[in-house]
Design a protein that fits this description.
The complex is a heterodimer. Chain A is 34% helix and 25% strand. Chain A is an alpha/beta fold. By secondary structure, chain B is mainly α. The chains are: A alpha/beta, B mainly alpha. Chains A and B meet through helix 2, helix 3 and helix 6 of A and helix 7 and helix 8 of B. Bound molecules: adenosine-5'-triphosphate and magnesium ion (MG).
Chain lengths: 261, 299
């Protein structure tokens, strides 16, 4: 149905009639249906408060950390597992799905330890392996050049934009299958933003990426598919080129042309 | 809004408003400085008085001699050793228990009326008079567990006394950790235990230790509960094990204050100096640890 001229489209995951309630009462997501294509970039756009972060956090079961939050519906993976299933361990989900948060949140540890932490959680103790993977992740996050001589410095001494790239490196170090990016460049200057966007382009050969962004240009530049959300509902999902040139819904057209939101 | 014209009515009003706010600023500063000077003066006078009375007695011999019926020969050897052991014991019991309880309450316990109930009780326990803890120690440790009037009974009793403070400060330390740092760890696939061990405990340790040491320096000066469980006030040997009878500095001091011979008053003052020196020493450690453990932590 999508006329992507690349190779055949495979589904990595499929959101199926997903409802989400904060604290049992706030109905933040309403009957969301959305495919997530394997090794493609899916952008999620929509006005502030429409539920982008909430949807993103369903993919790694972040909502399970707080009592009272409730999911209804499923997120099926290509292996036929329901990520939201009661028998599925959220920790296992998070081992495969990495996340970069809206605000940089480094640990008050060294730069090295920040990036290495995900590997340590997975039981990696070999110093050489850790060093190699940390370097690779920092290279990928376009931070290596700036920090290679100060890996033992505290992460909090980095600038806001550097901290965000550190968080990206931290999420990449564990080679996730799905990478969730919640406005990863909102704190970055144009050069760092460009390097992150380039990184996203490189990464999608290996990783399925979901990215929340407030920048229409960014969505247009980096994504293959775009989901437009409004007030907790999925208004429109389509190939990015379609969403930006021939949206099916008036609301989408208004939003992407900057007339509201 | 355009700026008011110079010397117009609005301009003058604004200036008057700023001037009155500044006056309050200055007034408050003066009050603050005065109260602080008063507090320091009181403390200084106390310490000066102790020094004037006690300094003549205070020398190396005083620290290495046992008590004696002759004031000039008496020392605080058994007392300061007793104090040190009791405090170490108190810390060894209160820190793991208190940190464990705080972690449980913050990280595991469901937030419901029962948690609130425990919270209120823990806070209230911190305000219970120390002699009540003495009675508890008397019943539970001295007789109940058959520890007698021993170092162990004293350490356990004081551990109960400082436990609420350890719990409350540790919880404060844990609560100060931003939720998004916690989420970062969980998002990487960490289990609850890994989050606690790798993040929660290290990041709250500075606060915990500061609280612990402040509580311990208070315990160091505690007299009443130890008298209740039967600390002796004249003991001419060092404890052999944790079940040995003991004395501590404040009890030694209290004993000397009560004697008619004025020479003993000098001894009491000298013992007071030793207590204050130990307290200040502990506070110095607290300040250093807080600096050391928190140097990496900037939220
Ligand atoms: N912890 C929470 N408890 C209750 N309601 C919440 C909570 N977090 C978010 N919400 C509500 O859920 C809705 C969706 O929020 P969400 O954070 O997903 O928006 P968003 O699309 O990411 O917005 P933004 O672009 O501003 O980041 C909002 O109405 C918000 O008020
Ligand atoms: Mg958001």
């Amino acid at each position: 149905m999508y006329n992507q001229n690349q190779t055949e489209l495979l589904k990595k995951a499929e959101v199926d009639k997903l409802d989400f309630f904060y604290d049992g009462t706030v109905h933040a997501l309403k009957k969301i249906n959305m495919p997530v294509f394997d090794r493609k970039v899916t952008a999620m756009i929509g006005p502030s408060g429409c539920g982008k972060t909430t949807l993103l956090r369903c993919f790694n079961r972040m909502h399970d950390l707080y009592p009272g939050n409730r999911y209804e519906g499923d997120i099926w993976t290509d292996q036929g597992i329901n990520l939201l299933g009661r028998k599925v361990d959220p920790i296992e989900v998070r081992m495969r799905v990495s996340m970069v948060f809206q605000k940089p949140n480094p640990f008050p540890k060294s730069i090295f330890e920040n990036v290495a932490y995900g590997l340590r959680v997975r039981g990696e103790k070999n110093r050489a392996v850790l060093e190699q993977k940390v370097e690779e992740a920092l290279q990928n996050a376009a931070l290596w050049k700036e920090v290679k001589d100060r890996l033992n410095d505290l992460a909090s001494n980095l600038s806001g934009g550097q901290q965000q790239r550190l968080c990206i490196a931290r999420a990449l170090a564990t080679t996730p299958e799905i990478l969730l990016l919640d406005e990863p460049t909102s704190a970055l200057d144009p050069i760092a933003t460009a390097s992150i966007e380039e990184l996203i382009g490189d990464l999608k050969e290996r990783v399925t990426i979901l990215i929340v962004t407030h920048s229409m240009q960014q969505a247009a530049r980096v994504s293959d598919f775009t989901a437009f959300m409004y007030m907790g509902e999925m208004v429109e999902f389509n190939e990015t080129s379609q969403i930006f040139t021939q949206p099916a819904q008036q609301q989408t057209a208004d939003y992407v042309s900057g007339r509201f939101g | 809004m355009p700026l008011p014209n110079k010397n117009s009515e609005d301009d003058l009003k604004l200036k008057a408003k700023i001037a009155s706010s500044k006056f309050l600023d200055n007034a408050f500063q003066v009050i603050g400085v005065v109260t602080m000077i008063l507090a320091i003066l009181v403390l200084g006078t106390l310490i000066a008085k102790l020094f004037i009375d006690g300094i003549a007695q205070l020398n190396f011999d005083f620290l290495t001699k046992f008590p004696s019926s002759k004031a000039a020969k008496a020392g605080v050897y058994s007392a300061w050793v007793g104090s040190l052991i009791v405090i170490l014991l108190t810390a060894a019991v209160a820190v793991p228990l208190g940190v464990g309880a705080a972690v449980y309450l913050e990280e595991y316990a469901e937030k419901n009326w029962f948690a609130d109930f425990i919270e209120v009780n823990v806070t209230n326990l911190a305000g219970v008079p120390s002699i009540i803890y003495g009675l508890l120690g008397l019943g539970v440790f001295k007789y109940g567990l058959g520890l007698g009037s021993s170092l162990a009974a004293a350490g356990l009793t004081l551990a109960l006394l400082v436990l609420p403070v350890v719990i409350v400060t540790t919880r404060e330390g844990i609560r100060a950790i931003p939720g998004n740092v916690r989420e970062a760890a969980y998002a990487l696939g960490a289990t609850k235990w890994q989050v606690i061990w790798d993040h929660i405990l290290p990041y709250s340790m500075g606060t915990t230790l500061t609280g612990v040491i402040v509580a311990l320096s208070r315990a160091l000066g505690e007299t009443a509960p130890l008298i209740v469980i039967g600390a002796v006030n004249f003991i001419a040997y060092l404890p052999e094990n944790l079940l040995s009878p003991f004395t501590v500095l404040p009890i030694q001091m209290f004993d000397w204050v009560g004697r008619p011979d004025p020479a003993f008053q000098q001894n009491a003052a000298a013992a007071g100096i030793v207590i204050i020196a130990m307290t200040l020493g502990m506070n110095a450690i607290a300040i250093y640890l807080r600096y050391y453990l928190r140097r990496s932590i900037k939220w």
